[in-house]
Write a structure and sequence with these properties.
This protein is α+β, with helices and mostly antiparallel strands. It has three domains: 2-93, Rossmann fold (3-Layer(aba) Sandwich), CATH 3.40.50.20; 125-180, ATP-grasp fold, A domain (Dna Ligase, domain 1, 2-Layer Sandwich); 191-428, D-amino Acid Aminotransferase, Chain A, domain 1, CATH 3.30.470.20. 32% of the residues lie in helices and 27% in strands. The protein has helices at 10-20, 51-61, 71-76, 78-84, 94-101, 103-113, 126-133, 159-170, 239-259, 292-297, 305-313, 351-355, 393-406, 420-428, and strands at residues 2-7, 27-32, 42-43, 65-68, 89-90, 120-123, 140-144, 153-156, 182-186, 191-200, 204-206, 211-212, 215-217, 221-224, 229-232, 265-275, 278-285, 300-301, 322-323, 327-334, 360-364, 367-369, 376-378, 382-390. The strands form seven sheets. A five-stranded parallel beta sheet has the order 3-2-1-4-5, sandwiched between helices. A five-stranded antiparallel beta sheet has the order 12-15-20-24-21. The chain is globular, with a radius of gyration of 21 Å. It starts with a strand and ends with a helix. The structure holds glycine. Glycine binds at residues 212, 227, 285, 289-290, 292.
């Protein structure tokens, strides 16, 4: 069977790797892919949001499955377009993807459903928004309503920062149409964790927990990034938290969507803040997380296709998914300067040596092949996600960092403290 994976990040390399290793041995295609996905299948030159191009390719090549990785094509309705042509698609329809496509919609659903989340208001008028900030506590969170490529969220530590973020979005057009409306939320206190769940319209199966590290610098300092590393499992997500996430987050959200005639099929990522075993939703994403996917899929024991088919056919069950007892760690290597300006086209060395480290996979993100075709070069801010399994967290960390230190490219940067909270918990016993 032919499978097309849409996207070009570390998440898509992890999906291609997992699907290419399925016991049914499917033929993998990825569009546009990266140098890593090219090792497991054929990269196409169609952009991830090229709805017409991808539809045409599917008509000509008849894939048995299309897995849509990023939020942008999902929010544009790629699943709807391909399903209308009769293709089997993994990824929510456009209406369901609004949970990520509009922060206002997600908050409205959560409020109506009684999902634990912070208080909020929505504004299109900057003066009214600034006035509202003065009635709330600091820090406060300003979010562009629409998709802003991970850049639309400001955690304002002062009223002046909040005012600036509001005026940048509503008056300065900083995020274009996506920022023409802002959601202002109270700041949640606690520890963040991520839960990804597969949903077949009715049944919800939560995947292994993980924790991302969003800030660029160690000790969680500096600007936000797409994610600098992740590990799984995250013990902050204990049995009590899991039960609450299932009942108070997923079941309530799905019931509210259903009331509005919206069916959710695919993966729903709940970004959580957990305090005293009580989870609150920070954000929903309509897709797999990155780098959480790299940490979670390496722990998935056995084939993934039965669960994907279960999602599409409405027959998903817990038995379709087993987890390895091992722990995983993903360390992201980025280009110097990221998340600001950075160089592209820089040669990456020793990828094979790093891949040969025991229990380790080097997932590519922003990579491509050089002009002569035999070099791998940087092509994005987040370049690689080195992911290792270990009998315990320290074992996984030690393998991952051995592999990271094997790789070199000019300006390479990574955090040395991935999983620091979990390590502290281990030390504290
Ligand atoms: N790791 C954060 C995200 O995927 O949105």
């Amino acid at each position: 069977m032919k499978i097309l994976v849409v996207g070009n990040g570390g998440r898509e390399h992890a999906l291609v790797w997992k699907l290419a290793n399925d016991s049914t041995q499917p033929e993998l295609f990825c569009t546009p892919g990266n140098a890593g996905t090219a090792e497991w299948g054929t990269n196409l030159s169609l952009g991830a949001t090229d709805l017409e191009g991808i539809q045409q390719w599917c008509i000509e090549n008849q894939p048995g499955l299309v897995v849509i990785g990023p939020e942008a094509p999902l929010c544009l309705g790629m699943a709807d377009v391909l399903e209308a042509e009769g293709f089997r698609v993994f990824g929510p329809n456009q209406a369901a993807a609004e949970l990520e496509g509009s922060k206002q919609f997600a908050k409205e659903i959560m409020k109506a459903a009684g999902v634990p989340t912070s208080a909020y208001e929505t504004f299109t008028d900057a003066d009214a928004a600034c006035e509202y900030v003065r009635t709330r506590s600091i820090p406060i969170v300003i979010k562009a309503d629409g998709l802003a490529a991970g850049k639309g969220v400001t955690v304002a530590e002062t009223v002046e920062q909040a005012d600036a973020a509001i005026r940048d979005a509503l008056e300065g057009n900083a995020f274009g149409e996506a920022g023409s409306r802002v959601v202002i939320e109270d700041f949640l206190v606690g520890e963040e964790a991520s839960i990804l769940a597969l949903i077949d319209g009715e049944n919800v199966v939560m995947l292994a927990s993980s924790q991302d590290h969003k800030r660029i610098f160690e000790k969680d300092l500096g600007p936000n990034t797409g994610g600098m590393g992740a590990y799984s499992p995250a013990s902050i997500v204990n049995e009590t938290v899991l039960k609450k996430v299932k009942e108070e987050v997923y079941d309530r959200t799905l019931a509210e969507l259903k009331k509005r005639g919206i069916t959710y099929k695919g993966v729903l990522y709940a970004g959580l803040m957990i305090e005293n075993d009580q989870p609150s939703v920070v954000e929903f994403n309509c897709r797999f997380g990155d780098p959480e996917t790299q940490a979670v899929l390496t722990r998935w024991d056995g084939d993934m296709l039965p669960a994907i088919n279960g999602v599409i056919d409405g027959t998903l069950s817990e038995e379709m998914i087993q987890w390895k007892d091992e722990h995983s760690v993903c360390v992201v290597m980025v280009a110097g300067g990221y998340p600001g300006d950075y160089a592209k086209g820089v040669e990456i060395q020793n990828l094979d040596k790093a891949d040969a480290v025991q229990d380790t996979v080097v997932f590519h993100a922003g990579t491509g092949t050089g002009t002569d075709g035999d070099k791998v070069v940087t092509a994005g801010g987040r370049v690689l996600g080195i992911t290792s399994l270990g009998t315990d967290l320290p074992d996984a960390l030690s393998k991952a960092y051995i592999a990271v230190e094997t790789i070199s490219f000019e300006g390479a940067f990574y955090r040395n403290d991935i999983a620091h909270r979990e390590l502290r918990r281990l030390e504290d016993g």
